[in-house]
């Protein structure tokens, strides 16, 4: 399925894209943690029992899953995007083996660059919920988006 490329002019505050479902497995949690966040609550079911009641996913793992879903879903089509910042990143509920995550992406701001009018920024609020509709993670993402290319001229 080809998705139409979206440019700055195509985007408005309030636009929403849904992502997921993303199922999180214990094997994936452990594999990510071994490489990138080797803390006991992500690796060892016995060590995680006390405080967390079992193994939980690294917040960075959840963020990486959200990024992968964004790339796979291609809500902007093939338009080249550049991430500029992540703000107000909150991990609100632990993500556990078997959780099924849904991602809501909502545009909260659109602005054309004054100094480089061939591009602008879009700020999106990402909200990640589990199968119980509990918010597991949320953040604001600032993305650079190109303006639409000028119409091509054909020589006559």
From TrEMBL:
Listed A to Z, the keywords are:
Plasmid
Q: Which InterPro entries match?
A: HotDog_dom_sf, MaoC-like_dom, MCH/BMMD
Give the highest taxon in the source lineage.
Answer: Bacteria
- Cite the Gene3D superfamilies for this sequence: Hotdog Thioesterase
Where would I find the MaoC-like domain in this sequence?
Answer: 21-125
The UniProt entry, under CDD domains, shows: YdeM (cd03454)
What is the designated name of this protein? MaoC family dehydratase
| Phylogenetic lineage | Bacteria, Pseudomonadati, Pseudomonadota, Alphaproteobacteria, Rhodospirillales
């Amino acid at each position: 399925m080809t998705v139409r490329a979206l440019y700055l002019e195509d985007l408005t505050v309030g636009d929403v894209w849904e992502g997921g479902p993303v199922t999180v497995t214990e094997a994936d949690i452990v594999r990510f943690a071994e490489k990138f966040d080797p803390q006991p609550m992500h690796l060892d079911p016995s060590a995680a029992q006390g405080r967390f009641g079992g193994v939980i996913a690294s917040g960075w793992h959840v963020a990486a899953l959200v990024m992968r879903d964004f790339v796979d879903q291609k809500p902007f089509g093939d338009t080249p995007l550049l991430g500029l910042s992540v703000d107000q990143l909150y991990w609100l509920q632990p993500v556990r083996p078997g959780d099924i995550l849904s991602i809501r992406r909502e545009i909260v701001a659109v602005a054309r660059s004054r100094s480089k009018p061939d591009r602008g920024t879009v700020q999106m609020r990402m909200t990640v919920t589990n199968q119980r509709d509990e918010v597991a993670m949320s953040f604001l993402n600032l993305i650079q988006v190109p303006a639409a290319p000028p119409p091509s001229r054909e020589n006559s």
